[in-house]
Amino acid sequence: MEYVNPEGLRLDGRRPMEMRQLRGEIGVVSKADGSAVFEMGNTKVIAAVYGPREVQNRSQQLNDQALVRCEYSMANFSTGDRMRKPKGDRRSTEISLVIRQTMEASILTHLMPRSQIDIFVQVLQADGGTRSACINAATLALADAGIPMRDLVTSCSAGYLNGTPLLDLNYVEDSAGGADVTVGILPKLDKVTLLQMDAKLQMDTFENVMQLAIEGCKAVASYIREILLDNTKQLEFRRGV
Amino acid sequence: MRDLQLSLNKGQSVRLERALEQLESLSSKANSDASVTVADDISVNYEDAILKGHGTVEMDGRLVATLCGVVERVNKLVYVRALRARYKPEIGDIIVGRVIEVAPKRWRLEINFSQDAVLMLSSMNLPDGIQRRRTAIDELNMRSIFEESDVICAEVRGFQHDGCLHLQARSQKYGKLKKGQLLTIPPYLVKKRKQHFHYLDEYGIDVILGCNGFVWVGEHVETRDDMAEDLSNKSEPSSVKSLNTMSDDEAEETYTPPETRQNICRTANAIRVLSTLGFMITVEVVVEIVKLSISLNLDVHEMLGAEFYVLVAEKEAERRSLLTKRR
Amino acid sequence: MIFSKVKGVLADEVLDLPTQCPSSRTPPPPSPVTVQPPASSPLDFEVRLGIAGKVVKRYSFLIGDPLMVGLSFGEKNFIKGGIAHDLRTDGRKRLTYRPIFVETGVIPQASGSARVKMGATDVIASVKAELGKPNPSHPDKGKVSIYVDCSPTAEPTFEGRGGEELSTELSSALQRCLLGGKSGAGAGIDLSSLSIVEGKVCWDLYIDGLVVSSDGNVLDALGAAIKAALSNTAIPKVQVAANASSDEQPEVDVSDEEFLQFDTSGVGRHYIVDATTEEESQMSSAISVSINRQGRICGLTKRGGAGLDPSVILDMISVGKHVSEQLINKLDSEIAAAEACDEDNEMDS
């Protein structure tokens, strides 16, 4: 199948290096300490953060740092074919783990000893790149909850189809069988915190694809920073003196 | 920006937008550059010695924010004042909390902090008012002072050597809060002041703006000598039981009178509207909003409708512009 | 501000030591924690008979949020008093609903979808139509299934399997009201309209609800969201003979259903609609009535353990009929507004 037509356009009309439309919104779950919606094209994710609060299960309490927990769940209606999956299947468990590890690396957990931070991500629509969208939503929600972080974490994926590196794969491109590289970075520190790839790639091609994904992450980072700064200014001027 | 989740019609959203724009233009211009997000550089003159405060880390010789908020500078100290976040305790803060556990010699309280706070039996005045050692009898009677899920008001004493946040209630004004409702608002909207207990005598109600974002609105209590009452009258648990078994008519008599209730609910809704709009909550502003709703002859529940939100935003813009003019 | 940690033993701690008076030395008094059971347990399980004679497990809506460990006696009494005086904590009267906010077409992949917000309660419902085989015992009818999920974003205790019980309870209450009896008779959705070729092909309608944020009365919100999602649903008309789908998109025929939840307070004489989480924590029993546009009852669920006087139940149903009229009208206008808004957006994009 042709994923990039001779004019250099992808199935959804994007250019190979073009990202889908991003949209982020802060404060969607009023009861949570922090929450956000993040959309990458048709992929839509809600993240809610509860905490830092008293550790619910005392045996898990850590005396020198905060306990970070994460649960990823997919709504029944989130995929094209409706599937009723049991909660806590392998894929969800793996993604929960990935998100938790990625976020934990950025949170200054030592500042909140003996407490617990819960990150819940709920996929409303899945159209490729759910893990990236989840990480981006979680970053926004953590920042909204006022949890101190070393750096923002942003994520984006890139793939390789028809001999072309493609940024931010959608579901059709993702399931085409080509390589799919998901990257998460700390933009300020310029470090990669998450790197996953399936299928195989030439070493030098991989370098290009990864570089493309990193560029994508940086674009997401500047968008997220914009939202956060706008939100901070709004909160401050509304509060008044 | 967070969505207010109101169904505004076109005219209302235009008015709300206009009011918010006015508020934005009124906010001090000097501060507009001071907003930072996570991982933003904070510009400082590195030649001067600086003290890194909350919300900052040093990274490759630069000062970087770890929170979203506003950069504040006090002499050499540079820190980021967080906006939306859980409560950060400071010694002497007056807080409202909920008892979640009665443990040996202490109560554990939820106060919107990253851990539960601890109120030691020894950190509060005994009901008989005499300074003495706490006996085992006192310890057994702890539930007659506060029991699980009671709402109480206390003062932050500080972190103790066990690493827990301790509270104290060494004054008659602290203690159990009854007959009213507890609201939770983001703590950054509560301004720290000398006075956090407010008695609105024209409405016959008490408002306690806890620094931790827990706000109590309730019936006015003359003197806060609940503790004394409780011990002298040890039959409190049984009186509770008798209340439950009382016939409906009898129970009704113990209810807050309708007029006071109306005032409590009106005040609570004023606080709800202000906090949803993200405006600073002081007792003066709350009273103003209550008066606004009364002057408009609104039913209490209509205060949570879209139109009143717009009116409150317009009122706030007007109030702040008057304030700047006077300066 | 950095807190200075106080080191050493403080005067208070000294005072704290057990007293040495002989009377209290023997026997050592047991700690109060172990003696008395907690005043109120946040979870309240009970088993009771369901409508169809099945044993259904129920639990109260109050779940262990740190803030929601329970309400103090004073707060409970304040809520009860408010219900008695017809002025609830947020100023509503007993039979006043919170403002309802409806948004349709929120899930583009679905055949129809809607999001409903009532106060801090926020739910999403989606309808997906798939081709399936009809049940051999009802060859002329399609199939509808309803599932509700509670997201942990709404309540940390819904994590893992924590939300399952509430999800099942909500699903079964909705099924009872919308799907009618086993035969499909009296269903809110006309199942025969879903048939394509009798005995061979029919539409399977999957209705999924998701609770994103909860502040009481989730069932009514879900009912409203499903109603809005169904009115937003368009299923392509399949013409088997022509072997191609035509452009016509008739909407699924749904008779209007409303859910009304009445919660009786502990006082027992008064009942309220659209309870918040705090109020739900105080309710002794609740009745959910589903009433259609003609004022007929389509389904009924009584929850909670406390016994109710039959006359009170009948009274609640008749009041429910009255309130539902207003609610149906309100919801209709909200849905119409949401759809108009949805179409505007489509034109813009």
TrEMBL record, chain A:
<dbReference type="InterPro" id="IPR050080">
    <property type="entry name" value="RNase_PH"/>
</dbReference>
<dbReference type="Pfam" id="PF03725">
    <property type="entry name" value="RNase_PH_C"/>
</dbReference>
<keyword id="KW-0271">Exosome</keyword>
<dbReference type="GO" id="GO:0071028">
    <property type="term" value="P:nuclear mRNA surveillance"/>
</dbReference>
<dbReference type="InterPro" id="IPR015847">
    <property type="entry name" value="ExoRNase_PH_dom2"/>
</dbReference>
<comment type="similarity">
    <text>Belongs to the RNase PH family.</text>
</comment>
<dbReference type="GO" id="GO:0016075">
    <property type="term" value="P:rRNA catabolic process"/>
</dbReference>
<dbReference type="InterPro" id="IPR036345">
    <property type="entry name" value="ExoRNase_PH_dom2_sf"/>
</dbReference>
<dbReference type="GO" id="GO:0000176">
    <property type="term" value="C:nuclear exosome (RNase complex)"/>
</dbReference>
<dbReference type="InterPro" id="IPR027408">
    <property type="entry name" value="PNPase/RNase_PH_dom_sf"/>
</dbReference>
<dbReference type="GO" id="GO:0003723">
    <property type="term" value="F:RNA binding"/>
</dbReference>
<dbReference type="Pfam" id="PF01138">
    <property type="entry name" value="RNase_PH"/>
</dbReference>
<protein>
    <recommendedName>
        <fullName>Exosome complex component RRP41</fullName>
    </recommendedName>
</protein>
<dbReference type="GO" id="GO:0000177">
    <property type="term" value="C:cytoplasmic exosome (RNase complex)"/>
</dbReference>
<dbReference type="GO" id="GO:0005730">
    <property type="term" value="C:nucleolus"/>
</dbReference>
Automatic annotation (TrEMBL), chain B:
<keyword id="KW-0694">RNA-binding</keyword>
<dbReference type="GO" id="GO:0071038">
    <property type="term" value="P:TRAMP-dependent tRNA surveillance pathway"/>
</dbReference>
<dbReference type="InterPro" id="IPR026699">
    <property type="entry name" value="Exosome_RNA_bind1/RRP40/RRP4"/>
</dbReference>
<dbReference type="GO" id="GO:0003723">
    <property type="term" value="F:RNA binding"/>
</dbReference>
<comment type="similarity">
    <text>Belongs to the RRP4 family.</text>
</comment>
<dbReference type="InterPro" id="IPR036612">
    <property type="entry name" value="KH_dom_type_1_sf"/>
</dbReference>
<feature type="compositionally biased region" description="Polar residues">
    <location>
        <begin position="234"/>
        <end position="246"/>
    </location>
</feature>
<feature type="domain" description="RRP4 S1">
    <location>
        <begin position="86"/>
        <end position="157"/>
    </location>
</feature>
<feature type="domain" description="K Homology">
    <location>
        <begin position="180"/>
        <end position="221"/>
    </location>
</feature>
<protein>
    <recommendedName>
        <fullName>Ribosomal RNA-processing protein 4</fullName>
    </recommendedName>
</protein>
<dbReference type="InterPro" id="IPR004088">
    <property type="entry name" value="KH_dom_type_1"/>
</dbReference>
<dbReference type="GO" id="GO:0000467">
    <property type="term" value="P:exonucleolytic trimming to generate mature 3'-end of 5.8S rRNA from tricistronic rRNA transcript (SSU-rRNA, 5.8S rRNA, LSU-rRNA)"/>
</dbReference>
<keyword id="KW-0698">rRNA processing</keyword>
<dbReference type="Pfam" id="PF15985">
    <property type="entry name" value="KH_6"/>
</dbReference>
<dbReference type="GO" id="GO:0071035">
    <property type="term" value="P:nuclear polyadenylation-dependent rRNA catabolic process"/>
</dbReference>
Automatic annotation (TrEMBL), chain C:
<feature type="region of interest" description="Disordered">
    <location>
        <begin position="19"/>
        <end position="39"/>
    </location>
</feature>
<keyword id="KW-0271">Exosome</keyword>
<dbReference type="Pfam" id="PF03725">
    <property type="entry name" value="RNase_PH_C"/>
</dbReference>
<comment type="similarity">
    <text>Belongs to the RNase PH family.</text>
</comment>
<dbReference type="InterPro" id="IPR036345">
    <property type="entry name" value="ExoRNase_PH_dom2_sf"/>
</dbReference>
<feature type="domain" description="Exoribonuclease phosphorolytic">
    <location>
        <begin position="267"/>
        <end position="321"/>
    </location>
</feature>
<keyword id="KW-0963">Cytoplasm</keyword>
<dbReference type="InterPro" id="IPR027408">
    <property type="entry name" value="PNPase/RNase_PH_dom_sf"/>
</dbReference>
<dbReference type="InterPro" id="IPR001247">
    <property type="entry name" value="ExoRNase_PH_dom1"/>
</dbReference>
<dbReference type="GO" id="GO:0071035">
    <property type="term" value="P:nuclear polyadenylation-dependent rRNA catabolic process"/>
</dbReference>
<dbReference type="GO" id="GO:0034475">
    <property type="term" value="P:U4 snRNA 3'-end processing"/>
</dbReference>
<dbReference type="Pfam" id="PF01138">
    <property type="entry name" value="RNase_PH"/>
</dbReference>
<dbReference type="GO" id="GO:0071038">
    <property type="term" value="P:TRAMP-dependent tRNA surveillance pathway"/>
</dbReference>
<feature type="domain" description="Exoribonuclease phosphorolytic">
    <location>
        <begin position="97"/>
        <end position="236"/>
    </location>
</feature>
<dbReference type="GO" id="GO:0071028">
    <property type="term" value="P:nuclear mRNA surveillance"/>
</dbReference>
